[in-house]
Design goal:
By secondary structure, this protein is mostly helical. Helix content is 52%, strand content 8%. It has a two-stranded parallel sheet with strand order 1-2. Helix 1 runs parallel beside helix 2. The longest helix is centred in the middle third of the chain and has 35 residues. The chain starts with a strand and ends with a helix.
Length: 106
């Protein structure tokens, strides 16, 4: 089973927001935010099922395998860069989602 996930989804176009088509803007937000959350969700859900099954097995109730999701962000989350508006905002989103998940899944 997979015990470490490196989640490095992200991309951007070098342009002002109003120079992007609506389709490009949607693709950026889908990849930079939705895909990051989707990957995280899929593994958290999978691992919760595995933990539940293991806890039902005799002599396994105390054994929990350590698992880790590494969401790769960017300095752009804290240091805004011109012409990367959506990317900057998305990486800040990744930082916050990661911080909150770390609180929920210590």
């Amino acid at each position: 089973d997979i015990s470490i996930v490196v989640n490095n989804a992200g991309m951007d176009y070098l342009s002002k927001v109003d120079d992007l088509s609506l389709g490009e803007l949607i693709r950026l937000i889908e990849l930079d935010c939705f895909v990051v959350n989707s990957i995280q969700y899929l593994f958290l859900e999978r691992w919760a099922k595995i933990n539940s099954e293991q806890s039902k097995t005799p002599n396994n109730s105390d054994k929990k395998e350590r698992r880790l999701i590494i969401n790769v962000s960017s300095l752009a989350a804290e240091l805004p860069i011109s012409y990367f508006t959506v990317y900057n905002a998305a990486k800040l989103y990744v930082d916050r989602v990661t911080t909150i998940c770390a609180l929920e899944y210590p």
